[in-house]
Amino acid sequence: MRVPLNVVLLEPEIPANTGNIGRTCVATGTVLHLIRPLGFSTEDKYLRRSGMDYWRELDVRYYDNVEDFLSCNGLAAERDPRLILTSSKVTRSYTQVDYPPGCFILFGKESAGLPETLLARFPETAVRIPMLDGVRCINLGSSVAVVLYEALRGQGFEGMA
Distance between CA atoms of 154 and 20, rounded to whole angstroms? Predict the structure, then answer.
């Protein structure tokens, strides 16, 4: 039986991005974790529109802060391979790591990414999506899709048609 992957959004700000990510999670059997504060209400019409009718099928879990998320999921160890951080501030490519079954892939908020303190705390598992020089980042929904599908590819797209 396939162990679902986990996408984690730290303080997402744009409802359309989160709705799009939620739809991707439903399509891939991935759990979505949202760490507060959120920049919108989950009742937001833009969130529902971008997630369309998929939002009610989404396995979504909420946390009050990063520490709450880490402790609830047993991820306090700095070298835990189940926690993958994504950031344009690191050098290792997202294709250079293994994504274990049930891993948690953490993405930062749209305006600032992940805080330096979190990256310093978990340096062994941080990855980036390669981009041309001078480009700060790509859209959060696109970033999630790129990394999530790499993780699924590495697991042979188990359970997916």
Answer: 23
